[in-house]
């Protein structure tokens, strides 16, 4: 098979895949704001995409984000209900198209719930680890912060004691000099 033939074969496979995917899509008639439609049109034009395809992908991502924000207990129940409804809708589409069975495309919501639980647990562990690290840093810094303060207080009190002792010694020496002068002065009294 030549390269040109393999390219055509690839095009046929892509078309079959696209048609199979589209067969599982359910039509949805919605109205959106003109601003949102303008953005969809602008992005679709910029990347040369179909507006419906872009809107479908954006809606799918938004639903996953919304699903992840649900309360975990409620999310689990809704995931199960959505998967069951998805199978039911796929069966209806298969019946309309005369097919025996049609694979459900899109998200498996029970698996999405499990992924959300894993992500939440991972985030909790990471948060606990960060808190533990922060606490250990605070504890590690605390003694260091207190030691210089304690040493300063001890040094200040020692300096104060030394100053007081020097002052007492100086006063003692000064007093001794005064007493000596008094004695000398008294020995040189006018009577001598």
Biggest sheet architecture:
none
Structural class: mainly alpha
Distance between the termini: 144 Å
Low confidence ranges: 178-184
Rough outline: elongated
Order of helices and strands: HHHHH
The total strand number stands at: 0
Describe the fold and architecture:
The protein contains five helices and no strands. By secondary structure, the protein is mainly α. It has a domain at 37-69. Helix 4 packs antiparallel against helix 5. Residues 178-184 have low confidence and may be disordered.
Short structural description:
The chain has 192 residues and is mostly helical. It is 82% helix and 0% strand.
Task: Summarize this structure as a short list of keywords or feature phrases.
single chain, 192 residues, mainly alpha, 5 helices, 0% strand, elongated
What's the SSE blueprint?
Elements: H1 3-23, H2 34-46, H3 51-69, H4 72-97, H5 109-187
Helix pairs in contact: 4-5
């Amino acid at each position: 098979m030549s390269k040109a033939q393999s390219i055509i074969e690839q095009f046929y496979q892509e078309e079959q895949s696209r048609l199979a995917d589209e067969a599982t899509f359910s039509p949805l008639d919605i109205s959106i704001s003109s601003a949102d439609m303008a953005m969809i049109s602008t992005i679709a034009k910029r990347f040369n995409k179909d507006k419906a395809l872009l809107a479908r992908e954006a809606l799918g991502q938004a639903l996953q984000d919304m699903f992840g924000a649900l309360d975990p207990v409620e999310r689990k129940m809704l995931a199960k209900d959505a998967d069951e409804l998805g199978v039911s809708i796929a069966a209806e589409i298969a019946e309309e198209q005369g097919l025996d069975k049609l694979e459900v495309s899109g998200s498996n919501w029970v698996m999405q719930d499990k992924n959300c639980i894993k992500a939440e647990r991972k985030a909790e562990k990471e948060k606990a680890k960060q808190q533990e690290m922060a606490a250990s840093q605070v504890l590690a810094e605390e003694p260091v912060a207190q030691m210089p303060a304690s040493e300063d207080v001890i040094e200040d009190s020692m300096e104060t004691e030394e100053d007081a002792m020097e002052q007492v010694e100086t006063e003692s020496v000064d007093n001794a000099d005064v007493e000596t002068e008094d004695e000398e002065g008294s020995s040189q009294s006018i009577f001598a």
